[in-house]
Design a protein that fits this description.
Helices cover about 40% and strands about 10% of the residues. It is of the alpha/beta class and about 375 residues long. The structure holds thiamine diphosphate and magnesium ion.
Length: about 375
């Protein structure tokens, strides 16, 4: 068991910046360059998609709860880069970026946010409940920690069937204090389940800091109680996250669960309607300085991977993609109210919206005639 940090830390828990030069870029293979540019394009896609989501919300085109991945782009992109298409992903309500990077068409993700029939969950799930079996995204959960035991069960199913897939289950720092988190890690370690638990430590659960809510604020250390391997990585650096994720996924595929803590940032409030008044201006300015999308773009330019023109071309391409998604969502029809109960259960149930809670789903079978009894 190695419970370790992946990189030297500054007092704030961030990796110390590494020296980088253009010579480094010259040594990179075309495949490496393509990978880095791909990371940047994906991070920018999440960024522009989420900014558009916030705008559409204020225009009342999106309703309900809505939580954004702004600030967590490097974490999402790095983590998912290590998954194969047959692996499973469970996450929480902050999942738009995960859905897109998992390969779901951004048009369908935006249509879901708009509550339209072409949405990932046919418009009935909304921001917090995207689900797509084809892409093996098994939710999107609004209950804090709700996904953790379910993901553990999925890993048990894989193990039971003898499959080679793994499960990745992401959650927030606040979720590491939920009872089901501990129960799940315990059973996963005991039964050697193929699962990677990921804590996206954005240092806030709504408005409460990790230090105020967790007796052990270095959350990756929780794994020690379960003799599970774990580590902590800088979530603003997509390459560091990708490397850590690759190690965690390989460990899980080898039959050993893993806990990865990704130290990240939440650039805005908890949800789109939270003005985040609990943060000082100085704190917000510092967050902007470490903005992962801006700093990664600048790093690629500094290292000669991209020039300013290429950066601008990616910006145009991504903006057009997001515009397309918003136009698609707006033109998609709203669901028919008569279909409201169609997707509540996996088994067939009568689509009867007039049934009251507690009333039987089906007419009971008539009792046998006592006269026929022998
Ligand atoms: C069981 C439960 N308790 C409380 C809530 C309300 N709630 C929603 S998000 C949240 C904070 C979770 O913080 P964290 O796990 O750090 O995730 P983040 O929002 O930072 O991604 C809380 C308390 C809930 N949805 N479910
Ligand atoms: Mg949090």
């Amino acid at each position: 068991m190695t419970n370790q940090m992946h990189a030297p830390r500054t007092p704030a828990g961030r990796a110390a910046p590494k020296k980088s030069t253009r010579a480094k870029a010259a040594a990179r293979t075309p495949a490496e360059v393509a990978r880095l540019v791909g990371f940047y394009r994906q991070m920018l896609l999440i960024r522009r998609f989420e900014e558009r989501t916030a705008r559409s919300y204020t225009q009342a085109l999106i309703g309900g709860y809505c939580h954004l991945n702004l600030g967590e782009e490097a974490a999402v992109v790095g983590l998912l880069s290590a998954l194969s298409p047959t692996d499973y992903l469970f996450t929480n309500y902050r999942e738009h970026g995960y859905a897109i990077i998992r390969g779901i068409d951004p048009n369908r993700v935006m249509a879901e946010l708009y509550g339209r029939t072409d949405g990932v969950s046919k418009g009935w799930g909304g921001s917090m409940h995207m689900f797509d079996r084809g892409h093996r995204l098994l939710g999107g959960y609004g209950i804090v920690g709700g996904q953790v035991p379910l993901a553990t069960g999925a890993a048990l199913a894989i193990d039971y069937r003898g499959g080679n897939e793994i499960v990745m289950c992401t959650m927030g720092d606040g979720t590491a204090n939920i009872g089901a988190f501990h129960e799940s890690l315990n059973i996963a370690a005991l039964w050697k389940l193929p699962i990677v638990y990921v804590i996206i430590n954005n240092r806030l659960g709504m408005g409460t800091s990790v230090e105020r809510s967790s007796a052990e604020p270095e959350l990756f250390r929780r794994a020690t109680s379960y003799r599970m391997e774990s580590s902590r990585v800088d979530g603003l650096d997509p390459i560091a996250v990708a490397d850590a994720s690759a190690h965690a996924v390989a460990t899980a595929r080898d039959g050993h669960p893993y806990l990865l803590e990704v130290v990240s940032e939440r650039l805005r409030g908890h949800s789109v309607v939270d003005p985040a008044k609990y943060r000082t201006e100085a704190e917000v300015a510092q967050l902007r300085e470490h903005d992962p999308v801006v700093t990664f773009g600048a790093r690629l330019v500094r290292e000669g991977v991209l020039d300013a023109d290429a950066l601008a071309a990616i910006e145009l391409e991504v903006t057009a993609r997001v515009d397309e998604a918003a136009a698609f969502a707006e033109s998609s029809p709203a669901p028919d109210v008569a279909t409201l109960f169609d997707y509540n259960y996996a088994s067939a149930v009568p689509n009867d919206s007039r049934r009251l809670p507690g009333e039987p789903l089906f007419e009971p079978e008539p009792l046998p005639d006592p006269g026929e009894a022998t």
